[in-house]
């Protein structure tokens, strides 16, 4: 049974792939292969995670820059994200 977009978006946002079994990982990856909306959402989450890690580990970042970036990320997420296809 194929997963729907809502299920996949929850699983990728919670990093479910790290603890999922082989069949579940296959189902999620298959859905991402077939669905450009969820694939885009997954890529956005990965980019946000990478950027957050860089900021967290960069002591030269000031609070104003981090607050500005946080607002930009939230605005971007409000404008986009996965479309419910199910």
Descriptive keywords:
86 residues, mainly alpha, 0% strand, disordered C terminus
Structural overview:
Mean pLDDT is 82; it is low at 82-86. It is elongated, with a radius of gyration of 15 Å. α1 (5-13) runs parallel beside α3 (36-56). The protein has helices at 5-13, 22-34, 36-56, 63-79. It is mainly alpha-helical and 86 residues long.
Provide the low-confidence segments as ranges. 82-86
| Helix and strand element order | HHHH
| Structural shape | elongated
- Helical content stands at 55-70%
Distance between the termini: 13 Å
- What share of the residues does DSSP label as strand, in percent? under 5%
List how many beta strands DSSP finds: 0
Number of helices: 4
User: Main sheet?
Assistant: none
The radius of gyration is: 15 Å
Mean pLDDT: 82
User: Which secondary-structure class do the elements indicate?
Assistant: mainly alpha
Produce a short descriptive summary.
The chain is mostly helical and 86 residues long. It has helices spanning 5-13, 22-34, 36-56, 63-79.
